């Protein structure tokens, strides 16, 4: 199992960087065509007006948010993914608003975004430096939304095989409320929600930055 996980880490590193042009294709195959609908399922929770997407990847969510007129910005450490996302946005006449960087050190002013979102992020998302940086750039009362994983629940043979693959790769981790503890530790009010979509189950974490002005101390 150790060597398998090391191999998968290398595979995902290559997929997200030098082979980023294959990302959509691979993600669609391993999810049996569900990947993009999973990513876009978070849309109804995003109201902005200013939104930052961490790990924006090929830019599908950013494109959808910009089409709705939201002030959507993206940050990703992969320059290859940024180029793909930029081409997608420019093709629809949207300015890219993309930044190469790391979530642990967000290059934005404090209290700048209404919402920060991340879909299927890797382990960096629970790094205390990442969470503190997100807390800083959110306005008081702002929201941090994470779509950390999905479970394929269909009973067909392809569904069962895909579900097993997701368990091995960590895309469908065994859920435990301990996932919420690092987020609440930095000051967020946090809860998890589960939703069914296309013979699959998604978990969404919603974390709010308290607005202390609404609860003044007497």
What does this structure look like?
β2, α5 (79-91) and β3 form a beta-alpha-beta unit. The chain is built from eight helices and seven strands, in the order αααβαβαββαβααββ. Strands 3-2-1-4-5-7-6 form a seven-stranded mixed β-sheet. It has helices at residues 2-16, 23-30, 35-40, 60-67, 79-91, 128-137, 157-169, 181-185, and strands spanning 50-54, 71-76, 98-100, 113-119, 138-152, 189-196, 200-208. It is globular and about 55 Å long. The chain is 36% helix and 24% strand. With 218 residues, it is α/β, with parallel strands linked by helices. It has one domain (2-214): Vaccinia Virus protein VP39 (Rossmann fold). The model has no long low-confidence stretch (mean pLDDT 88).
How are the SSEs placed, and which strands pair?
Elements: H1 2-16, H2 23-30, H3 35-40, E1 50-54, H4 60-67, E2 71-76, H5 79-91, E3 98-100, E4 113-119, H6 128-137, E5 138-152, H7 157-169, H8 181-185, E6 189-196, E7 200-208
Parallel strand pairs: 1-2, 1-4, 2-3, 4-5
Antiparallel strand pairs: 5-7, 6-7
């Amino acid at each position: 199992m150790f060597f398998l996980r090391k191999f998968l880490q290398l595979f995902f590193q290559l997929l997200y960087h030098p082979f980023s042009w294959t990302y959509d294709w691979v993600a669609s195959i391993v999810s049996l065509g569900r990947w993009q609908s999973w990513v876009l399922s978070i849309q109804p929770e995003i109201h902005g007006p200013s939104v930052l997407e961490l790990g924006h990847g090929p830019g599908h969510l950013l494109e959808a948010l910009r089409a709705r007129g939201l002030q959507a910005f993206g940050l990703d450490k992969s320059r290859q993914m940024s180029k793909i996302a930029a081409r997608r946005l420019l093709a629809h006449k949207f300015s890219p608003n993309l930044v190469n960087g790391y979530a642990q050190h967000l290059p934005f002013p404090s209290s700048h975004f209404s919402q920060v979102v991340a879909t299927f992020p890797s382990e960096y998302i629970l790094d205390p430096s990442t969470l503190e940086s997100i807390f800083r750039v959110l306005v008081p009362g702002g929201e941090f939304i994470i779509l950390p994983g999905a479970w394929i629940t269909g009973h067909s043979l392809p569904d069962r095989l895909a579900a097993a693959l997701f368990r091995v790769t960590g895309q469908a981790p065994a859920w435990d409320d301990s996932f919420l503890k690092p987020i609440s530790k930095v000051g967020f009010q946090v809860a998890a929600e589960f939703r069914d979509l296309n013979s699959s189950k998604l978990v969404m974490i919603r974390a709010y930055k308290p607005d202390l002005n609404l609860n003044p101390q007497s």
